[in-house]
């Protein structure tokens, strides 16, 4: 066994502390064609990797006459490619107190894999006699041949030849292996090769060549501020670490120790163009809107004062309840309305983005993309409630996105550890081989195949290539076959497992008969395992749960489904064997990784937040994109340029202070009337735009582009210069920045840890306590911070990076890197760290998204709302009444948890703006409105039953106040519709469901939250089902399915009581000696107001349209009439005990 020691050079980061060394042991195994498992240790890779001076290995097996370690000089590029191909064909497993194993898979899925980047792709057969191995292939699928004679040899035989056959002699030509020429190693287009690393330097040390500057510590940037870039990332050679380029010494100096951008005259003369623009709402709309808000505030104050001073002495209890409710409603209206004072719109300029980052320039002669990398997270947990076909379509839309392929990485988190999800993702990776080039060739939108082929518009519009019709027909046929394979996976896995299980039982019975003297051996019972396509046990969750193979008890898994692409475009050709002609089409695919974190009994895995944090750590080690986009499994990329639009905000001037860019959620499959306000347009188009004018929108759980360094819990750059204001839109003004004479230690990083005092130094020795004991993870933090900085192409850009700094390709994956990623997704890694407390997604709430965004805003970060012309993402939403109520219940419960926690906005730091704090306060308070809303919904019925009203008489003053308040509310709604672009029907649907949710789910959420706070009872929720209804003929079949839930009891009661009260009120008034029509009209008006809001709820109770039994209406009418007559008979009008003249109640 061999273990690898990670010795990252930390001397430049801390002069007094040395990072602890972590040992990671990796075991490799391979299943041969005969069914036997062959284990490989890292010793087998020493001769290959040791010569590269990538790592130092400590071999624990002593040398013997049969085994002698040798070091042969071979081609490093070939060795690294072979290593990466081997990694992509291996399923890595491991966890707490277990060895990390790499299982070399002969095949990942039943069908053949054709794309060379995909796991399980096969090359030519090995030419060594008696070997059944396959030759490793490169990005084009061409064989990787280490010798100039082009003798075909597999990886295992190549290692044997290096170690055992005469010290590295080729079995074909019998000559020693030689290094290839530079031309064969990829020296193309005038691109320089990486520097030769110093002797004894490890791979991580070469990536992190952080060396202290030999110049004065008071170096200044073009802005006159301390230059973090040069201090932290200057190296002695031409290149820095990772994929950052640095110019030669002296290029950035002006002879006065002041750092300036290269060619300052060119930068000064060249007009600078912003990437984004803030579009203010027209004053003709916004000014009356603000005026109406203040006018209604005054009217509400006068109305409440009049109500308090004019009690109804005949029904003081009715008056008291109504006044209390009205005061609360006025308070919550203020909380909701004040943050809407400063709405803004924003626009991006993708042309400028392309000019700055992807156009040839003196710093980037070849025009290679200088955009930062993005890691995309897709989370799923249950393949039954989240169909694998939906997840697969989301993955395909990501792989086909319009973003530099080499800068994109997709991570799929399977929190259930299901083989069904694993093989569905492998099938998706295989289908991406033809789908992604097809999208690039014909500019397909959207790039989700299910949505694209179901488009109702003309698919041939604006298509000019003559072969489009033929290509589309072929791809459609392939997609239909792909869907059949996905839908057949559950049955295929079940049949395969049954067959292997029967074989294992027969083997066990034979073994039992051989070892037992008794010939009558009964059936031997062995655990029924789930088997992979290559005939090995699935390390995750089995279909029949067993110890260490259940949903809450399985090892951590990582499979590189698609290995990292080459840094150069890979053009296709007109091969007749291909499905379509891919000439001049880039056929590369982004990195795709399947991740299932380790789960063990006794550990709190923290649901989705824990899964996202595991992805943050694993991605930091494998790709370390400075930005993270998280998507739910049912939210796909509808606009292929969405990530570019989000990157415009991050890369613009001041973008380094933006923690995330939130995109609006758009939904498909919603009924045309949007009965239950599933589109939620009032929130996404009104509230979120308004918050964008303050400190930024809240994080809503999906469709959000994060800055990785903000997730790590650091403060924004220049946090001392930016003081919180009341409202930057309405009352612009900023305190002057304090002049800092000398740079503080935290400025050397350009970032500070949140939750620490202003004067506390950034002690690097504390980082393992915050982030865990992974040196890889800790060392990746400054890399992500630097790569996420805006471009320093203008003197006004602070904390920028040099142009062309991100054009060097990333390092190839090796087994030790993936093994380290396995260790950071183990169940124990977060113990005694700040993950979930101050770092990553925050734990302790079912709405971890809102809390995570709140923590960032509380540290002074800003967020941005990006509304694109074409929807950025689209997803699904529950259209069934029961599912919708449960969804609202989960959101409201999270808000109650926030209110009773230290994340309450009342405890926010001074860095959060006042109106932003009010908005977060409203998030925590709105569920408590349910108490007052329920009482107010019963007040009309109580008024009709008692014959009293909330006021003594309907005088002119009361009616005038009521009219003013109602009219101003309607006018505000009209103006909101004007500046937000929503429709009046959407606003009304939102009002209706506000009352439906307030009288059902919100009350249950408050009760559950109180139980958790008082009694410590934990709250558990089930996943919202993303599967469609069973009725294939009706797209909205789910809308009419009635599923009973206790949340419906209260709204049903409110409807029945108000209906009965209306009937009782009419009967009482008609047969009264002195009819009180004013009291009747007041009560009936408010009862109809309640019933109008509950109308969608009533339709949901009736089930499918046109199928409501007539008896339901008959019995409802009879019951209402009977109860009304009984009430009038029991409590007749005063002075009259007769109803209807001669008729008398018995």
Q: What descriptive keywords fit this protein?
A:
single chain; alpha/beta; 21 strands; disordered N terminus; disordered C terminus
Q: Which stretches are poorly predicted, pLDDT < 50 over at least 5 residues?
A: 1-25, 31-38, 40-75, 179-268, 731-750, 755-761, 1136-1146
| Major sheet description | 14 strands, mixed
Number of E-state strands: 21
Task: Tell me, rounded to a whole number, the average pLDDT.
Answer: 77
Organism: Tetracentron sinense
InterPro entries: Cellulose_synth (IPR005150), Nucleotide-diphossugar_trans (IPR029044), Znf_RING/FYVE/PHD (IPR013083)
Family: Belongs to the glycosyltransferase 2 family. Plant cellulose synthase-like D subfamily.
Binding site for Mn(2+): 608, 632
Any overview of this molecule?
The chain has 1146 residues and is an alpha/beta fold. It has 31 helices and 21 strands. The strands form four sheets. Strands 1, 2, 3, 4, 5, 6, 9, 10, 11, 12, 13, 15, 17 and 20 form a 14-stranded mixed sheet that branches. The protein has a three-stranded mixed sheet with strand order 14-21-16. Strands 7-8 form a two-stranded antiparallel ribbon. β5 and β6 form a beta hairpin. The termini are far apart. 47% of the residues are buried. Mean pLDDT is 77; it is low at 1-25, 31-38, 40-75, 179-268, 731-750, 755-761 and 1136-1146.
């Amino acid at each position: 066994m061999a273990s690898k020691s990670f010795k990252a050079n930390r001397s430049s980061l801390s002069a007094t502390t040395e990072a602890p060394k972590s040992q990671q042991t990796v075991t490799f195994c391979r299943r041969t064609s005969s069914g036997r498992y062959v284990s490989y240790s890292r010793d087998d890779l020493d001769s290959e990797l040791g010569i590269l001076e990538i790592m130092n290995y400590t071999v624990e097996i002593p040398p013997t006459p049969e085994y002698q370690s040798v070091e042969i000089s071979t081609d490093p590029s070939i060795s690294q490619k072979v290593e990466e191909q081997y990694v992509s064909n291996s399923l890595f497993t491991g966890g707490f107190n277990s060895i990390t194993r790499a299982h070399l898979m002969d095949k990942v899925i039943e069908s053949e894999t054709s794309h060379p980047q995909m796991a399980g792709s096969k090359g030519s057969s090995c030419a060594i006699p008696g070997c059944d191995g396959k030759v490793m292939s490169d990005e084009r699928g061409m064989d990787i041949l280490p010798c100039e004679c082009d003798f075909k040899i597999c990886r295992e035989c190549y290692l044997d030849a290096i170690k055992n056959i005469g010290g590295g002699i080729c079995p074909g030509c019998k000559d020693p292996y030689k290094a290839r020429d530079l031309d064969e190693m990829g020296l193309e287009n005038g691109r320089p090769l990486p520097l030769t690393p110093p002797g004894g330097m490890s791979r991580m040390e070469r990536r992190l060549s952080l060396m202290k500057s030999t110049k004065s510590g008071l170096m200044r940037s073009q802005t006159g501020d301390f230059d973090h870039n040069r201090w932290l990332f200057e190296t002695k050679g031409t290149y820095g670490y990772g994929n950052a380029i640095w110019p030669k010494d002296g290029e950035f100096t002006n002879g006065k120790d002041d750092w300036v951008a290269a060619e300052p005259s060119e930068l000064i003369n060249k007009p600078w163009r912003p990437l984004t623009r803030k579009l203010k709402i027209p004053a003709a709309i916004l000014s009356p809107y603000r005026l109406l808000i203040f006018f209604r505030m005054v009217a509400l104050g006068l109305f409440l004062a009049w109500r308090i001073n004019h009690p109804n002495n005949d029904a003081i209890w009715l008056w008291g309840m109504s006044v209390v409710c009205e005061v609360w409603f006025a308070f919550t209206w203020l909380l909701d309305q004040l943050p809407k004072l400063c709405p803004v719109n924003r626009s991006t300029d993708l042309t400028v983005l392309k000019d700055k980052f992807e156009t040839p320039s003196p710093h980037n002669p070849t025009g290679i993309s200088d955009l930062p990398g993005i890691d995309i997270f897709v989370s799923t947990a249950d393949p039954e409630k989240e169909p694998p076909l939906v997840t697969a379509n989301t993955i395909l839309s990501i792989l086909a996105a319009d973003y530099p392929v080499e800068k994109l990485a997709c991570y799929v988190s399977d929190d259930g550890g299901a083989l069904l999800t694993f093989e569905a993702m492998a099938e998706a990776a295989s289908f991406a081989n033809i789908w992604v080039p097809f999208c690039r060739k014909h500019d397909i939108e959207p790039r989700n195949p299910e949505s694209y082929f179901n488009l109702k518009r003309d698919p041939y519009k604006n298509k000019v290539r003559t072969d489009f019709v033929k290509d589309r027909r072929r791809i459609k046929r392939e997609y239909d076959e792909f869907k059949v394979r996905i839908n057949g996976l559950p049955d295929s896995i079940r049949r395969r497992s049954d067959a292997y299980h029967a074989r294992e039982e027969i083997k066990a019975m034979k073994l039992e008969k051989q070892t037992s003297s008794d010939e009558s051996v009964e059936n031997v019972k062995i655990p029924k395992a789930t088997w992979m396509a290559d005939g090995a046990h699935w390390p995750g969750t089995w279909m029949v749960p067993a110890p260490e193979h259940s949903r809450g008890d399985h090892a951590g898994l990582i499979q590189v489904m698609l290995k990292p692409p080459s840094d150069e475009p890979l053009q296709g050709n007109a091969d007749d064997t291909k499905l379509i002609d891919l000439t001049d089409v880039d056929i590369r695919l982004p990195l795709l990784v399947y991740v299932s974190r380790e789960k063990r009994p006794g550990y709190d895995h923290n649901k989705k937040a824990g899964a996202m944090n595991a992805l943050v750590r694993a991605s930091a080690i494998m790709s370390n994109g400075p930005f993270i986009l998280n998507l739910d499994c049912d939210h796909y990329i509808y606009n292929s340029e969405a990530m570019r639009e989000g990157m415009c905000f991050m890369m613009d001037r001041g973008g380094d202070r933006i923690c995330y860019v939130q995109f609006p959620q758009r939904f498909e499959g919603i009924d045309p009337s949007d009965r239950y306000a599933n589109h939620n347009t009032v929130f996404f188009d009104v509230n979120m735009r308004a918050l964008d004018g303050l400190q930024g929108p809240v994080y809503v759980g999906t469709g959000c582009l994060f800055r990785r360094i903000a997730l790590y819990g650091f403060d924004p750059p220049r946090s001392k210069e930016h003081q919180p204001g009341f409202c930057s839109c309405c009352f612009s003004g900023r305190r002057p920045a304090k002049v800092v004479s000398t740079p503080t230690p935290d400025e050397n990083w350009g970032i500070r840890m949140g939750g620490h005092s202003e004067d506390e130094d950034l002690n690097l020795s504390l980082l393992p306590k915050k982030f865990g004991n992974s040196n890889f993870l800790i060392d990746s933090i400054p890399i992500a911070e630097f790569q996420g900085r805006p471009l320093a192409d203008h003197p006004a850009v602070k904390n920028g990076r040099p142009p062309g700094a991100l054009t060097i390709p990333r390092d190839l994956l090796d087994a030790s890197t993936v093994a380290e990623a396995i260790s950071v997704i183990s169940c124990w890694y977060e113990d005694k760290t700040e993950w979930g407390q101050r770092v990553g997604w925050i734990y302790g709430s079912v709405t971890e998204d809102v809390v995570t965004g709140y923590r960032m805003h509380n540290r002074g970060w800003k967020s941005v709302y990006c509304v694109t012309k074409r929807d950025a993402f689209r997803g699904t939403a529950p259209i069934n009444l029961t599912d919708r109520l449960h969804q609202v219940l989960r959101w409201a419960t999270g808000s109650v948890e926030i209110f009773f926690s230290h994340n309450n906005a009342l405890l926010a730091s001074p860095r959060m703006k006042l109106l932003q704090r009010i908005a977060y306060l409203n998030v925590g308070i709105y569920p408590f409105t349910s108490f007052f809303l329920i009482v107010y919904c019963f007040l009309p019925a109580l008024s009709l039953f008692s014959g009293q009203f909330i006021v003594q008489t309907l005088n002119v003053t009361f009616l005038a106040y009521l009219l003013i308040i109602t009219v101003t509310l309607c006018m505000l709604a009209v103006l909101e519709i004007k500046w937000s672009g929503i429709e009046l029907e959407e606003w009304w649907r939102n009002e209706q469901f506000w009352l439906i949710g307030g009288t059902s789910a919100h009350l249950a959420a408050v009760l559950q939250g109180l139980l958790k706070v008082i009694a410590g009872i934990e709250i558990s929720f089930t996943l919202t089902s993303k599967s469609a209804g069973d009725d294939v003929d009706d797209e909205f079949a789910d809308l009419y399915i009635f599923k009973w839930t206790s949340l419906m009891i209260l709204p049903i009661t409110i409807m029945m009581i108000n209906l009965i009260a209306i009937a009782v009120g009419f009967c009482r008034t008609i047969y009264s000696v002195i009819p009180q029509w004013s009291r009747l009209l007041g009560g009936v008006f408010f009862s109809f107001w309640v019933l109008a809001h509950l109308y969608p709820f009533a339709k949901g109770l009736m089930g499918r349209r046109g199928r409501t039994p007539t008896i339901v209406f008959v019995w409802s009418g009879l019951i209402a009439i009977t109860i009304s007559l009984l009430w009038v008979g029991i409590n007749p009008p005063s002075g009259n005990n007769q109803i209807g003249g001669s008729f008398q109640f018995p």
